[in-house]
Amino acid sequence: TQRKNDVSRVAAQLESYASNANGVYPTNAQFGAGAAVAGNFWGTYIATGNYLSPLDGLIYRNSVAWPAGVPTVDTIYYRTGTACDGTAIGRGYSVEIGLEQGVNCRDNK
């Protein structure tokens, strides 16, 4: 339940990022850059947001590589221009996290 809530919080933070960047969402590279780098999405919004993995207590691992099948548990995946179902959504995004029983995905289409 907590990780599903975290996906919703990440989606809300993506909207906040876009509102501060003239409606532009972070690129895949900005999302996937090192967690400690201030100024990119991950370092500014996620690393400071207390998203801790219930498995090991570490900050969720981030990835820009969209998985085939079930993604790795506790890794957050992000892609621009594509919805959770794979359809094109222009300037939008989708964000997904792996759960033990499957995946949870949010998009803004």
Quote the distance from N terminus to C terminus: 23 Å
| Sheet having the most strands | 4 strands, mixed
Placed side by side, the strands forming the largest sheet appear as 1-2-3-4
CA radius of gyration is 13 Å
Using the alpha-carbon principal axes, give the shape: globular
Average pLDDT score: 76
Query: What structural class do helix, strand and pairing data support?
Result: alpha+beta
Proportion of residues in β-strands: 25-35%
H/E topology pattern = HHHEEEE
**Structure summary, number of beta strands:** 4
Report on this model:
This protein has helices at 2-20, 28-32, 41-46; strands at residues 61-63, 75-82, 88-99, 102-107. It is an alpha+beta fold and 109 residues long.
List the helices and strands and how they pair.
Blueprint: H1 2-20, H2 28-32, H3 41-46, E1 61-63, E2 75-82, E3 88-99, E4 102-107
Parallel strand pairs: 1-2
Antiparallel strand pairs: 2-3, 3-4
